């Protein structure tokens, strides 16, 4: 595949700098290199930063530090013990005087619109400022209201005088299994500071404030992702992209016409069948939740880090929701057993420089389980339904078993890398992407 595909550096969810999309080094080891090379990369990145740019904030936090890489004497698990709740800071951290904290009521149409507008104009862009994430209001409500969510973890910063929302950060609770331990964590996401305020050092204060509010609920660990290298990734994943509407992708500069390729040959190359091929392939329905939960829980056992989903989680995260999440399964025509499952979520990007197109409609591979249907066939059916739903591109990380279908189904590697992090939890070794069973939005 000759296209050089581009995408926003996916999921700069929690970078602690106001310049959210800049990275000192985007080099990532190839899939054949071992863990040591990731350690070497991290050290190289750290050394390449001038003293002034070192991660002043993160070096004060209970996260894996670059200097400790390769030290197998450090124990796996929490880095710092929990503090007695009475000793957790009760008052919010101080903001610069023009600003004030608010707790964002995502159920309010007015507040949800404010959050949508802040993110749509100021959140993650690609390096060349051609695309910017455009999370829908329905998506935000889905992402921020899982079972047991805390409203106090949806944090905004307003200008006191105008009441304008200028920054945002969130957490949602999750049960994450790390090897054999179930750890209650906060998944921290949507850190966004208005472009005009990127020099105000708001982000570190916001991270400290969401951490304080998480601690008040007696939760001491967190997971997050970023498009930049911070201390210290538990793994680094690669984004892959499968063209569904190659003409539009080339028109808007998302991908390029390959060498010696014409547009008509490119369209033919990516053409998909009109109908899915797997007998019993259908949309997930409410009565499928118990069977899908069993299937997913059994599948997740093979990964080092993975969510510990129960039926309530599966109902929330995987029941189909129009323009938010799509889930399909395979029900054996003979036994009516649910044998396979695939899902993807909808995350469009605004196209910033095109006269003809304003939105790039992207599907993101979510959780997939193959037991009876070959994974290649299952995911090809997922591509077919995504194409029928007018998606322009289908994106996937090389996590879980995804590597088994990417090249064969004509996915190409993108520019975006995604680094996964745990807060206040140490793993002895950097994971391979295939050891990770967690997808963060």
Automatic annotation (TrEMBL):
This enzyme catalyses: N-terminal glycyl-[protein] + tetradecanoyl-CoA = N-tetradecanoylglycyl-[protein] + CoA + H(+)
Q: What's the top EC group for this one? A: transferase
**Could you tell me which residue ranges the Glycylpeptide N-tetradecanoyltransferase N-terminal domain spans?**
78-237
Q: Which residues form a coiled coil?
A: none
Q: GO cellular-component terms in the record?
A: cytoplasm
Q: What does it do?
A: Adds a myristoyl group to the N-terminal glycine residue of certain cellular proteins.
Task: State the name under which the record lists this protein.
Answer: Glycylpeptide N-tetradecanoyltransferase
